Amino acid sequence: MTQITIPLPESLVLAIGVLLAFGLASALVVFAMMPAKAKPKEAIASFQSQMGLDRLPTAAFFLMVTSWGAIFLVLLIGILITIFKTIWWVTPEMLAGDSAAIWDWRFSIAKLTALTAVLGAVVALPFTIIRLKLNREQTKLMERQREIELDALLNDRFNSAVEDLYAQKQVSKWTGDQASNGWQDDFTRRIAGIDRLEVLVRERPEFAGRVAKMLCALVRTERESFPPLDWDNALSFDEQNDRFIECRVRVRSDLENAVQTIGRLKSIKGVDPSQVEINLSKANLQGMDLRELDFNGADLFATFAQGGDFECSDLREAYILCAEMQCSDLRGTKLQGACLKSAELQFADLAAAKFDAKTDLLDAVLDGAALQFVDLSIVPHIERALPKVFGDTSVTLPSNTKHAPEHWPKETLVFEDFRDQWRAFQRSIGQDPDNPE
């Protein structure tokens, strides 16, 4: 049997031995660091997470790691061989007079320097990745800390503004020659608090729901200290007119400002309308200026809104059951899907109001109300109210109504003529809120 002997230099054998020992030591270290019962996939996923490369596909990460390992081993073997060749093979003293060999030796020194630099960069790569991961985590932690501090500041601003909603000031009251200290509502601070809440919502729209709840609670609870005027439909002509004017004059500025802010919340950029719940049930809204506001889906059950101005506001799908809205201005108001069951709308101005088949007017009282440029073709429960309202030929009547009531003009009137004839009709049934005479 023929034997082939390959002579290996002693330095090469030593280099191979050192490399094997290094590889064995590395394997033992990696094995020791792995969890005792970790599966291969779990170990790879854990290592990938520690490197901060969770978003990278596992296959791509495994390919990167194996490529890095291969490059590392090639460079390590190369540098070890170069070191052993440089130290144990030949030196410049042994190559005296052989300039070519000396230049080869010098090239091996340069090669050793280059390999050392490249190997250092390869070894530093995973540590650089880990450092970047730690920097990201630290940045996220700092951002989270700033968010917590900002939330705390915003909550302080919110709580401070809410406290001002019920602000009072101490005043001196005189009874004859004697003075006594008392308390009265501080409307200036209250309005300032309401304004700060709206500014807060514009800065952080997620506060809209909380602000709406606080303002609605303010308007509802203040009804006890500021009750609505009694509105008796059996009052005389002059008494009814006086009540209408008094409703407009006695409006509380802080409560009106609160309701106006509530109606603007849904239109603020970034606010989710579904998160803004408006509950003004049984609130006193008499005489308030609530034009062009959004009360879509609001709970207005049994509100007192006599003389209120809702011109061009959005009341779609609002719950207005049993509301008292005599003499209110509802021109151009969106009432699609609104529940107006048993609502009192005597002498209300409904010109250009928007209705649909879901608008519920069952048992609603419309005596003396005005209808112009209104489509009633699909509105249920409206037929019985038509003889007691005033309109003209601009109104689209229900399909089951053969002709308009006798007191309706046979033409479309201009604004001034329509208003004059409407007031004349109201006088004929005993009411005229404006009392032009």
Automatic annotation (TrEMBL):
Q: Which UniProt keywords apply?
A: Membrane, Transmembrane, Transmembrane helix
Cite the Pfam families for this sequence: Pentapeptide (PF00805)
| Gene3D superfamilies recorded | E3 ubiquitin-protein ligase SopA
In its keyword annotation, does this UniProt entry include Kinase? no
Matches recorded under SUPFAM superfamilies: Pentapeptide repeat-like (SSF141571)
Q: Which domain of life does the protein's organism represent?
A: Bacteria
Segments crossing the lipid bilayer? 12-35, 56-89, 109-132
List the PANTHER family hit by this protein, alphabetically.
Answer: BTB_POZ DOMAIN-CONTAINING PROTEIN KCTD9
Q: Can you say what this protein is called? A: Pentapeptide repeat protein
